[in-house]
Amino acid sequence: MGGIKSEICNGISTNIWEWCVEYKSWIICSHIPGKTNFLADSASRRFNDKHEWKLDENIFGVICKIFGLPSIDLFAPRLNKQVKRFCSWKPDPEAEHLDVFSINWAQFELVYIFPPFSLIARCLQKVRAEKAKGWMVVPLWKSQPWMGMLVRMLIREPRLITRKKNILRLPISSEEHPIMKHTKLMACLLSGKECETEEFLKRVQNSSWRPGNQEQESSTDRISKDGHNTPTVEQVIIFLSETFCRGVGYECINTARAALSSLGIVVDGRRAGDHPLVVRLLKGVFNMRPAKPRYIETWDVQPVLEKLRSMCPLHSLFLKDLTLKLVMLLALTQAARVQTLHLLILKDIIIGKDFRCMWLAGNIKQCRPKFNVQFIKLKAYEKDKNLCAFETLKIYIRRTKHIRSNVDDESKLFISFIKPHKSAAKDTISRWIKSVLHMSGVDTKKFTPGSVRSAAASKAKAMTVPVAHIMAKAGWARCAISLPDLYIQA
Side-chain half-sphere of 431: how many Cα atoms within 13 Å? Predict the structure, then answer.
């Protein structure tokens, strides 16, 4: 006998048991033959043949010309094999081997590996353990844990497979793999032998050398040809001018000037970056290529507010929707950075009748000697409770109370809504904001989560909120020109 932890099923079982007791009835379990139990077994009996995907033969031929023709296809039945010899995961009269992980891959000169995506990491480990050699087709998923291992096992430059129609399809039909609509594939020549991988890495490093050079050039030779640490002002000007001619902006050249000063380079008794000629050059660069804000326009806050207003009532929302709503409301009402949201804690929270104050676990970016933000204050918004951050926060704290005991840092305000629950990282909070923007119709390819700050400031200015109040809330200096010039946008 087994058991489950479902309260719903437990309630149904209790009701059935009480009914049997009341009517003095007995429930007897009896066997139902499989041929008559077709309704319950219908899902397991349904044949699914949509797992034998095949790479386009023309693309396979092109890659073979680059990496070589494989001796055997390790993951293929006879329907989608690419070479004569193949290994099948099910009994096949033409297959040379079954269960590819039970054989030694090093016995083959070159293997072709196109495994199910869930087995990529296991395949890489087997290639390394048995010091085998072959080329593998994998999706270009840069954030996967196995990507680092794959890069360290390369012995040739990987080849990106151009996305086109029917690049990955079923052999018995023209149906294309659904993942190819948003994923690219790449072919990689791999080896489990360290000597071959080290040789490739050394070749990659040497490719940055100029023809005829025997060692890496020093970057300081651009400003000091005679080997001394005291270049002339002419050499500094030439270095900055060459940087300007590469098409970079004022910020990049100013960073280069600051780097020269930080290295302790002194020219004519002055730090290199403070020399009058260098300062004059930077003024000319600014006039020709002035610094520009990241966004020349911003998105409309109204559609986002409408989306947040539609996420109601609060007590019936899923934890995911409640979390997304609270994060976005705090970002908008406080003109807060992701860092600020990440530092919010529940420890020593101050609770009033119509307000709540939450402390920050550290200093935020805009903190300075005369401006040190230690907490944020949320006030109740009686005009529209569906847009009230105060009410949303109360419901969120109540909903997450029972799962905070298992969180690594239960003092943090935001925790992940997916098990196992953990305190939310800055990247996670940033992704939440991006999700809300995307659901509201904002172009997330153009606007990042950081754009919420400027959008909130612009909306507040459009609603005739005093600029001084906006700057105080966002933490900008009163003498700064960044708010009207860089943040208040159309």
Answer: 8
Other CB atoms within a 10 A radius of the CB of residue 244 amount to 20
Pick from 115, 165, 117: nearest CA to 140: 117
Contact 475, 482 (CB under 8 A): no
- The tally of CA atoms less than 13 A away on the side-chain side of residue 478 is 6
Domain ranges of the chain: 54-202, 230-288, 301-487
pLDDT above 90 coverage of the chain, percent = 16
Intrachain domains 54-202 and 301-487 with the same fold = no
- Residue in 109, 107, 158, 166 with CA at minimum distance from that of residue 137: 158
DSSP class of residue 105 equals G
pLDDT, one tens digit per residue, over 321-374 is 999 999 999 888 888 888 888 888 888 888 888 888 888 887 777 676 666 677
Global pTM reads: 0.46
Q: Enter the tokens of residue 376.
A: 């944020």
Backbone angles phi, psi at 161, to 5 degrees: -85, 120
Average pLDDT value for the chain? 81
Which residues make Cβ contacts (< 8 Å) with residue 365, sequence separation at least 6? 337, 339
Fold of 301-487: hpI Integrase; Chain A (1.10.443)
* 99 CA to centre of own chain: 35
The contacts of residue 240 (CB under 8 Å, 6+ apart) are: 253, 256, 257, 278, 281, 282
Residue 290: CB atoms within 10 Å: 9
pLDDT digits (tens, 9 = 90+) for 32-53: 887 777 677 776 665 555 567 7
Please tell me the distance from the alpha carbon of residue 301 to that of residue 44, in angstroms, as a whole number. 49
Structure tokens that stand for 95 in this block? 């297959």
Q: Which two tokens stand for residue 475?
A: 């933490």
Task: Write phi, then psi, for 340 (nearest 5 degrees).
Answer: -65, -45
pLDDT at site 49: 56
Mean pLDDT of 92-109: 89
- Phi-psi domain of 363 (left: phi exceeds 0; alpha: psi -120 through 50; beta: other): beta
Distance CA 253, CA 256 (A): 5
Would you call 359 exposed, middle or buried from its count of C-beta atoms within 10 A (0-12, 13-18, 19+)? middle
Check: CB of residue 205 under 8 Å from CB of residue 162: no
- Out of 89-98, 171-180, 317-326, 346-355, the most confident range is 317-326
For residue 279, give both structure tokens.
């300062």
Q: What is the pLDDT of residue 264?
A: 78
Q: CATH number for the 54-202 domain, one of 3.10.150, 3.30.1490, 3.40.50, 3.90.660?
A: 3.40.50
CA 183 to chain centre: 15
Helices (H), 265-318: 276-288, 301-310
